[in-house]
Amino acid sequence: MNGPPTVLLRVKGAREQTAMRQLHEARAAVARAQQQLDAKREEYQRYRAWRPQRERELYDEIQNQQVSLADLDELKAKIVQLRDREQALLDEVGALERALDAAGQAQREAHAAWLAAQREVQKVEELLADWQARAQREGERLAELELEEFTRPGRAAGH
Length: 159
Hints:
Blueprint: H1 4-62, H2 69-151
């Protein structure tokens, strides 16, 4: 049966499908963000464990040797670079944590939108069922009226 509720159901169904697709995309974004964060944390942990060892190696290279002030300045600069790199990795971890939080929030919003779209479809399905039931009852009523007129006493052929 075609009518306004049927058209409305198609529209609401399309919106629900869009909301579901957006939810799937949001879930995939959360998974990607989590993978990126995990990889960056692992990189940070490896670097954090390696950096002190590298600093000792740099110090060991000049230990018990006569070095110029320029060499010492170069050593200090290398150590600062190592520590700056560690801080940069930590900052990247923080940025990825914030990105994961944002992706999680987007997923929660997409889920809420999908649930709302499902409720709208359900409402229209109920409206359509009611509309179809009314149409059926009206059809039955008209059929009964027609039958009554046809079988009413006093209605003879030609009167």
